[in-house]
Design goal:
single chain; 152 residues; alpha/beta; Rossmann fold; four-stranded parallel sheet; 4 strands
Length: 152
């Protein structure tokens, strides 16, 4: 089983969208039993909060199911047990290294590095652009799944 943790700053917008989009994609391929998917934050600013209402609205708009959600902060055990830690932006990687005192980060990747146009997924908390965030995350999750399937 492949364990993936999607990471963003607060775990209320981008990383939960990625978690549920990836779960949706693997369920469509009957691969849910092959993966353990979750998400986490690098900060403690939004701990124990629900997913942002605009993130939920965007998932609803595209028919992506989600369940009751409570944000959490990444910890060393979560990091250690993951096969992949997929961050939304470079700033998340910097915070992850600092917070967990990491030297080696082979399992840490940016989501859009799996696409033809690598870049950060901008934080819709600040931009208000949940549509673009959803579209980029969907493309990234699709590319990540393709990478993982072809890697096998």
């Amino acid at each position: 089983m492949t364990k993936i943790v999607f990471v963003c700053h607060g775990n209320i917008c981008r990383s939960p969208m990625a978690e549920y989009i990836f779960k949706y994609l693997i369920s469509k391929k009957n691969m849910s039993d092959d993966f353990d998917i979750s998400s986490a934050a690098t900060s403690s600013e939004a701990l124990h909060r629900d997913m942002h209402k605009e993130a939920k609205a965007e998932l609803d708009k595209h028919g992506i199911p989600y369940s009751k959600f409570e944000s959490r902060q990444i910890s060393y055990p979560i990091y250690r047990d993951a096969d992949y830690v997929i961050c939304m932006e470079e700033y998340n990687i910097i915070n992850l290294k600092r917070f967990l005192l990491l030297r080696k980060t082979d399992k840490v990747k940016l989501l859009l590095d799996f696409t033809a146009k690598p870049k950060d997924v901008d934080d819709p908390w600040y931009s208000g652009d949940f549509v673009t965030a959803y579209n980029e995350i969907y493309k990234g999750c699709t590319a990540l799944l393709e990478y993982l399937v072809n890697k096998e």
